Every structure is written in structure tokens, then in C-alpha cells.
């Protein structure tokens, strides 16, 4: 798959009419500092014809669309061999969002997703997310391919990005919610007045065989603060599923106070992910406790590696912290990309996650 994309960076709050045409005249920037955009060409494509990305950027706080060009929305363009996308991020966990509402089959294959997600030879992302028709009465269906081509059940940061993307597709504003069918079940994100997205993530799954993990249950049917031998060390782990599997650790049997910034994540992370005790592989969260309401984590994501944020992981961390009597049911969880507010409600046993989702740029790529 050759990749050649025209990419536009929004420097103001985005709207669905942001870009009249991906292939028309360049965006005009108006700024007291500069009137000329800068162009950066990036070679892309592994083993393919060398394409280029055009990224338009300037020190502008206002962007005007071309005076001449198609009045059609960028996202409404339907060329059969061109993929129009919007790149979003949730605390640095970044995704390529695709309008897939007209078909129940993803417009991008897993192999194409790998190439698109490549940060040197593609667009660069942790995954590709598809906004698809709803099923069983839901508004939409979410599917996602990771940067390695695997398909996870759901993604917490991704669902917030999808909610903002759907609002843009529907050209809607203000507080609103959507029902979204995912591989982890029904998820309901709600866009708040301040632009953040609050997501009802449902109930955590604690039964060991459902996480799944082969570690023997040690608290009812759950695995809580159990021993897991990894790379010659005995780690204490709690296993939680948020529709996808998580292994949460606050340290080893020798060191209970984990200093997460000192971890060599690229070395230890894969050893957890592919551990024999996790038949579906696992996401792994390494956690440092500052106070009962303030936690810090680093994550090694199944299929994506080290990322700046993981929403389902932050939810799993609070559940594990409560089960191990380390934290309260509502916490701020610091991730490398920023904080998330996580609440495990006693009222309905649901996890509620609140955090941002932002547009990075709009683009087109031939498939």
C-alpha cells in the first residue's frame, strides 16, 4: 500500500466544515506573526513508491478555508480509492478515525492499519478506529485495529476520541451522549459542556477465567495481589478485565513502593504481555501510589507497546487499588500524557472515566 497524504493541522477548535477539500487550494493562514505557512515533506512507505505528506502549519490562532473550492465537507468526500480520516488523541494515545457508517466491514485491513500506524513510514498512530453502524439498537459500533494489526475488544482513550468524532460527523454541539456497541459490550460516552468526555465503562470483570488469566484465584474467584514470576522477580499482581485483560502491579515482593519512572518498560512490558499465564496476552499497568486519591501509572499495551495513556488501564488500576486497599473509589490517575478522573461507583458497580479527546489533523490517503 503506497501512502501519500495531504494533511492539515487545525490550530483552532475544529468543526466539520473545517476543510473544504483535501486536494484543492492550500489552506490560507492569517496571523499577526506570519502570513506564510511552512511545509514539511516526510518520506513514507516501506517497500513502496516514495510518497509524501504535506503538513501545513504556522504560528496562527485563526485558520480560514480557501475562498475558492468545493463547498462539500471534507468528511463527505467519497472517492473509492481514497481514505479520508481525522487523527485524534486522548492524552497522547493517538488514533486514526475513519467514517465507516456506510458499511459493516472496516475500510482498512489489519495489514493496512499496520502501515498507516507506522510512525516513520505511515501516518503514525496507536490504532485505527472505525465508526460503524450500530447493532441491537445502539447508535454506533466501534471497531479498532492496533498498530500491530490485532483487534482489541475496546479502548478507553479511543472511545473518547470516537465520541468527539461522531459529534463532528453529526455536526452537533454541546452536551450529548451516544450508545456504542464494542467487543467489550455496551459503552456510553457523554460529551460534557467543557468538551471532556465522561464514559460509562460498565462493570469490571474480576473472575479469573473471564479476565482471562491462568493464575489461580486467591480471593473468591478473583486474582488479587497474587504472585507472578517475571524475569527472575516475584511481582504482586491483580487481574482485572474492562472488556480487555489487564494485569496491574504495585511492585514486587521485595519492593512494594514502585517507582514507575525508573522502569525499563520496553524490556519488562513484553514479558508480561506474552506471559504464559495470560492466554489472550495482557495489558500491564505499573502503578505508584501518591495518596489514596492520587495514583501514577505507566502502561504496556497489548498490541501497541508503551503508550502515553490507556483509559481502560486507568480504570483497571483504580479497581486493583481498591481491591488491595491502597486507594479510594475515586482517583486522579496520572499517565505520561496527562491525568484521567476515574470513579468506581458503589451505587451501580460501574466505572466512570472522564478525560479529554482532541483533534490532531485531517488527512487523506490512497489505499
UniProtKB/TrEMBL annotation:
The family database entries (Pfam families) matched by this protein are listed as:
DAP_epimerase
Coiled-coil segments, which residues?
none
Q: In which pathway does it act?
A: Amino-acid biosynthesis; L-lysine biosynthesis via DAP pathway; DL-2,6-diaminopimelate from LL-2,6-diaminopimelate: step 1/1
Molecular function (GO) terms listed?
A: diaminopimelate epimerase activity
Where is this chain primarily localised? plastid
A GO BP term here is:
lysine biosynthetic process via diaminopimelate
What compartments host this protein?
Plastid, Chloroplast
Matching SUPFAM superfamilies, A to Z?
A: Diaminopimelate epimerase-like
Q: Write the record's keywords in alphabetical order, separated by commas.
A: Amino-acid biosynthesis, Isomerase, Lysine biosynthesis
Q: Which InterPro entries match?
A: DAP_epimerase_AS, DAP_epimerase_DapF
EC number(s) per UniProt?
5.1.1.7
Which cellular component appears as one GO term in the record? chloroplast
Question: Which reaction(s) does its UniProt entry say it catalyses?
Answer: (2S,6S)-2,6-diaminopimelate = meso-2,6-diaminopimelate
Family to which the UniProt record says this protein belongs = Belongs to the diaminopimelate epimerase family.
Entry's NCBIfam families? DapF
Q: What is this protein called?
A: diaminopimelate epimerase
Gene that this polypeptide is encoded by: DAPF
